[in-house]
């Protein structure tokens, strides 16, 4: 673009001086409203359930969970690996449990980070285990967040990981990188027998029956990877956190094969309560739209051990991705290959940055108009 004259630069600076107070005021107000809405949310009461969640929960285009159907998924039969480091497959000698009023959350230390690392084909980089938590229902046919052909499972476990490109879960959530987090979702179905891998967590729940701010240490061995099903066939898609503020930063992996949970183990989850003593149950968000999204079903997934530091990685994961093939075609036209700058896929509509720029420009002109109007009114008096 040709450079602008001095007069234009002065105009721009004056424009900013005039409009900055309005912008600052509006941003502060917006932040306060967002906090007010985000602080109080729930699943089962009309005044605060999922339909009232604000921000990206309402405006997002890649929200989670979703319903998996034959129609909205693309099946792939090529061999794909999920790799876990040695620590991931070892039992931890203790863990921490918390009842936060929305779910039962497990982490391995006081901080939500760990030495458990996974990667795999099409992930692009490795992910660090942060925490796991559950969603469960009041009846056998509901409770999971994701559904299959419209049918729910009694519960769903989420193993939350963040990209090793970031220092913390919080940083990864705040980046707006659509692959900042990797969450593994596991369905549960009622069985006559206990799930032994789940039992340490079931015992821990009895120690946090009521919501508390504190984490409780549990000295029972827990093997996180034993919670995975043997058959790793999975759905994968780009989506969001399923709780406010619903950030679209998650590459989702949901396993098709459900793992067992006995009735008494399910009862333990249903016995937990919030600070008011109200049962925590049906703590799932309903499925969201999959319009304009690709959802893959990977039929041939194998589990492997990830090489440790210093070990030769003879067959590193495929960094390239079928997701990016379409994206690359778009990028090569635009002269950019940075995935982080193209977080919303290859849709032909305007990007988020363009929308924000247009909105900001509109806002600035509106502010100037108001300023002129106010000045005119006072001068008229
Ligand atoms: Zn969850």
Automatic annotation (TrEMBL):
Domain of life: Eukaryota
PROSITE patterns documented for this protein: ALPHA_CA_1, ALPHA_CA_2
GO molecular function: carbonate dehydratase activity; zinc ion binding
Region (Disordered), start-end ranges: 330-351
Pfam families with a match to the protein in the record: Carb_anhydrase
GO CC, alphabetical: cytoplasm
EC number: 4.2.1.1
Enzyme class: lyase
Ranges for domain Alpha-carbonic anhydrase: 39-299
InterPro entries: CA_dom (IPR001148), CA_dom_sf (IPR036398), Carbonic_anhydrase_a-class (IPR023561), Carbonic_anhydrase_a-class_CS (IPR018338)
Signal peptide interval: none
Catalytic activity: hydrogencarbonate + H(+) = CO2 + H2O
Transmembrane segments: 359-378
Co-factor requirement: Zn(2+)
Record keywords: Lyase, Membrane, Metal-binding, Transmembrane, Transmembrane helix, Zinc
Family: Belongs to the alpha-carbonic anhydrase family.
Function: Reversible hydration of carbon dioxide.
PANTHER family, per the entry: CARBONIC ANHYDRASE
Record protein name field: Carbonic anhydrase
Lineage, top ranks: Eukaryota, Metazoa, Ecdysozoa, Arthropoda, Hexapoda
């Amino acid at each position: 673009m040709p450079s602008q004259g001095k007069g234009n630069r002065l105009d721009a600076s004056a424009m900013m001086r005039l409009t900055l107070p309005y912008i600052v005021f509006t941003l502060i107000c917006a932040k306060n409203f967002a906090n007010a809405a985000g602080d109080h949310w729930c699943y089962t009461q009309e005044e605060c359930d999922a339909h009232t969640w604000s921000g990206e929960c309402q405006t997002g285009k890649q929200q989670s969970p979703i319903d998996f159907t034959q129609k909205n998924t693309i099946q792939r039969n090529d061999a794909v690996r999920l790799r876990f480091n040695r620590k991931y497959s070892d039992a931890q000698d203790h863990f921490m449990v918390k009842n936060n009023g929305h779910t039962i959350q497990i982490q391995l230390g006081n901080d939500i980070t760990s030495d458990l690392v996974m990667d795999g084909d099409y992930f692009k980089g490795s992910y660090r285990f942060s925490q796991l938590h559950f969603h469960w229902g009041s009846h056998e046919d509901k409770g999971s967040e994701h559904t299959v052909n419209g049918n729910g499972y009694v519960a769903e476990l989420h193993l939350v990981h963040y990209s090793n490109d970031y220092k913390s879960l919080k940083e990864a959530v705040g980046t707006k990188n659509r692959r900042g987090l990797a969450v593994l979702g596991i369905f549960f179905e009622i069985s006559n027998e206990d799930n032994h891998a789940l039992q340490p967590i079931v015992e821990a729940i009895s120690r946090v029956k009521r919501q508390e701010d504190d984490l409780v240490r549990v000295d029972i061995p827990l093997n996180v990877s034993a919670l995975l099903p043997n058959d790793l066939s999975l759905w994968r898609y780009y989506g969001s956190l399923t709780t406010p503020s619903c950030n679209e930063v998650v590459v989702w992996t949901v396993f098709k094969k459900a793992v067992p949970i006995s009735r008494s183990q399910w009862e333990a989850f249903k016995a937990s309560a919030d600070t008011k003593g109200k049962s925590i149950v049906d703590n799932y968000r309903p499925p969201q739209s999959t319009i304009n999204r690709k959802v893959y079903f990977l039929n041939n997934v194998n589990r492997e051990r990830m090489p440790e530091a210093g070990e030769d990685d003879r067959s590193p994961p495929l960094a390239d991705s079928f997701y990016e093939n379409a994206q690359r075609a778009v990028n090569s036209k635009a002269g950019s290959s940075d995935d982080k700058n193209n977080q919303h896929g290859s849709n032909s509509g305007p990007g988020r940055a363009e929308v924000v720029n247009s909105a900001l420009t509109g806002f600035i002109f509106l502010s100037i108009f108001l300023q002129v109007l106010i000045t005119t009114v006072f001068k008229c008096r």
